[in-house]
Structures are given as C-alpha cells and as structure tokens.
Amino acid sequence: MTAFSLDPARTAWCAELRTLAAEQLRPLAEKGEPGHVNRPLVAELGRLGLLTRLFTSGALDLCLMRESLAQTCTEAETALALQGLGAHPVHAYGTAAQRDRWLPGVRDGALVAAFALSEPGAGSDAAALALRAEPDPDGSGHWRLTGEKCWISNAPEADFYTVFARTVPGAGARGVTAFLVPADRPGLTGAPLDMLSPHPIGTLAFDAVPVTADDVLGEPDRGFRVAMHTLNLFRPSVGAFAVGMAQAALDATLAHTAGRDAFGGKLKDLQTVAHQVAEMALRTEAARLMVYAAAAAYDEGAPDVPKRAAMAKLLATETAQYVVDAAVQLHGARALSRGHLLEHLYREVRAPRIYEGASEVQRAVIAKELYREAPTRPDAAVEDQ
Ligand SMILES: Cc1cc2nc3c(=O)[nH]c(=O)nc-3n(C[C@H](O)[C@H](O)[C@H](O)COP(=O)(O)OP(=O)(O)OC[C@H]3O[C@@H](n4cnc5c(N)ncnc54)[C@H](O)[C@@H]3O)c2cc1C
C-alpha cells in the first residue's frame, strides 16, 4: 500500500471478497434467524478460509475483509468479526494446549467464540468490572466466577467465552484476569437480548462457575492488557465495517438518484441532490483513508496507534451514520420498507458508535494522547521554534 491507495493485489482481493459475499454468504445470511448465531454462515466463512485469515492477517487486511464483506453482507461481516474478537485473546495469549483445543474449530467455523467484557455496571468504564473470580475455599488454587456480563455478542449461543473477571478487589484495571470459559461449564447460563441491530447478543450469568489455572489467558491479574490489546487491533476494523456500510449506502444512492424520475428529469439533475451525493462520497473516502492509515500504523508498530485507531473508529462510525441517514433521505419512503437495504443499514449503523468505545470515549483517548505527546511546559512550544 502507498500512503493513498491499495496495491493491485489487495484491490483485486477486495473485489473477490465482495463477489464471495454476494454469491455465497448472502444467501446463507438470508436464511438465518435474526438475533441468533447463524452456524451455516460461520461454517461457510471457515470453508472459504476467511476465518483463518483472521489470525494470519495484519490489521490492514482485517480492515479490508470487514469493509468488503460489509459492503455486500453485514451479517457475514459481523460473524467474521466476532470470531476474531472472541478468539484473538486465545490466539495471542493462550497456551499451546488452549490454542490446540479451540483455534482449529474457530478457524473452520465449527466453534463460535465471544468476548465478554461489559457488565450492567461497567461499559465504557470497563476497569470497574465486578464479576468476581474468588479462590475456591478447598485451597486447590482454583477460582469460582460469580456475577453477570451484559450485551455480549454471540451470547448465549457461543461455544466458549473470553471472560474478564476481577481477581483483586478494588484494584481497577490491575486486578483483572482473562479466562477462557467453555459454554458448558456448570453454573454458566445466559439469555438472548432483543436489540435494534440484527445481531446475536445476550447476557451471561455466572453462578460459582469453576475455573482453573489452565483456563487463564495470559497472566493472572493482567487480563486488562489482554482486553485492551484485542480492542486496539479491532478498533480500526470497526471503522472499516462502518466504511463498508457507508459505501453500500452510497452505491445504492447513486443508482437510485440516477434512475428516479422527478420534476421532468432525474433526481441526480437536482443540484442539491448531486451535491449531497458528493458530500457522502467525500466523507466516506476521508474515513476510508483514515481507517487504512490507522491499520497500517498498527501493522508497522507505530507509537501513535491508540490515537490513530481512536480517530479512525470515531470518524468512520460517525460518517457512516451520516451517509446512511442521507441515503435514506434521498431514497424517500421506500428506504423505510422492512427488508430494504437501507432499512437494514439504518439499524446496523447505530451500534458501532457505542460499542468498542463510544464516540465520546474515542475523543477522550485522542485528547489524552495529544496532551501526552505535547510539550509539558506552556512556553515550550514557543521556545522550540
Ligand atoms: C450491538 C452491541 C454489541 C456489543 N457487543 C459486546 C461484546 O461482544 N462484548 C462486550 O464486552 N461488550 C459488548 N457490547 C457492549 C459495549 O461495549 C458497551 O455498550 C459500551 O462499552 C458502552 O457501555 P454502556 O453501554 O454501558 O454505556 P455507558 O458506559 O453507560 O455510556 C453511556 C454513554 O455515556 C457517554 N460516555 C461514557 N463514557 C464517557 C466518557 N469517558 N466521556 C464522555 N462521555 C462518555 C457516551 O455517550 C456513552 O454512549 C456491545 C454493545 C452493543 C450495542
């Protein structure tokens, strides 16, 4: 990739992904039940080798997969992303035994993963999480997990969960441990949630669920790093998902406004319409470039990844909301019919502004990084000139 465009091989790969999504994934997505894990779709993502790519690709290729799939089939995009989010901690921090047990099934789409960080009382402030990992009273060195997780994508139907639990009371981010918890552990139950987006999501309840040292991902009490490392990788790719949705809305709008008769011509002949479409394209392209740049910075190990990832996620998700809303407006009433692409995108586009760090949280990250990078003395910038 140059600073401004993808190389021809990546451009061709994106086109191939869009075709695969249209021809092989969308038919399976259409047969799925809203709010439930679509296992045939996950298995097809595995058969096509895309789930394996989750673990062999860098951040940029992850973004290209998410953008390309989102353009044609958001359900396939989300199923892919959730396998990555839930299983990345196992890939990056798991022991050989954990990786051998779980990752082949994740890669071939036979096992469904989930990432369980949020709780009813700890969303944006994830370090306030309260699900307790208490030492087993029998002195075995094992723990019991007790508490709740909420808004967990793929719950309660996933086969295993990366669960973040408090091992040191009152220690904030320093006292959290990541555990790999198989769904069939005694004491683990869950319930689906009915949300605006057509997304499998639910709650989890832990009633003294037994876990051992073999279930720890990474080191005890250092699980917050596992969560943040995973989110740093995925944050630009949420932006890529948003860019894919924005592009789909833009493409639909170009087709519609070019064909729709109005006032003795086509809608596109009205200058306000044409300028609105130009604005949608302008903002989508700006967001795309920022996402690619943030992902490339991640792959290069650049020092300013947190700031760039936050900027990319913020800009792209807010842009997609703007573009999808404008597309609805330019389509008129038909866009609001149940089952219309834009009705679907209108529901899909809202949640990414909240999850994996709400837009306000991204602004807080950007500001913190700016002040960290800035000269510490008020007069330093002037003196340095
Ligand atoms: C579709 C969907 C899927 C999800 N999937 C998962 C998942 O798989 N795993 C998981 O662990 N979680 C998941 N979540 C939960 C998600 O991560 C949380 O919703 C998110 O962290 C925000 O937490 P909250 O909803 O409790 O909002 P709160 O933290 O209560 O925040 C509410 C609002 O307050 C404002 N706000 C919060 N913090 C600040 C701040 N620092 N500065 C300024 N304003 C602020 C923002 O406007 C924010 O939207 C999912 C959520 C959704 C909607």
TrEMBL record:
PROSITE patterns: ACYL_COA_DH_1 (PS00072). This is Acyl-CoA dehydrogenase. InterPro entries: Acyl-CoA_DH_CS, Acyl-CoA_Oxase/DH_mid-dom, Acyl-CoA_Oxase/DH_mid-dom_sf, AcylCo_DH-like_C, AcylCo_DH/oxidase_C, AcylCoA_DH/ox_N, AcylCoA_DH/ox_N_sf, AcylCoA_DH/oxidase_NM_dom_sf. Residues 221-370 form the Acyl-CoA dehydrogenase/oxidase C-terminal domain. Residues 114-208 form the Acyl-CoA oxidase/dehydrogenase middle domain. Keywords: FAD, Flavoprotein, Oxidoreductase. Gene3D superfamilies: Acyl-CoA dehydrogenase/oxidase, N-terminal domain, Butyryl-CoA Dehydrogenase, subunit A, domain 2, Butyryl-CoA Dehydrogenase, subunit A, domain 3. Residues 13-109 form the Acyl-CoA dehydrogenase/oxidase N-terminal domain. One of its GO terms (molecular function) is acyl-CoA dehydrogenase activity. It holds the Pfam family Acyl-CoA_dh_N. Belongs to the acyl-CoA dehydrogenase family. Its cofactor is FAD. It comes from the Bacteria.
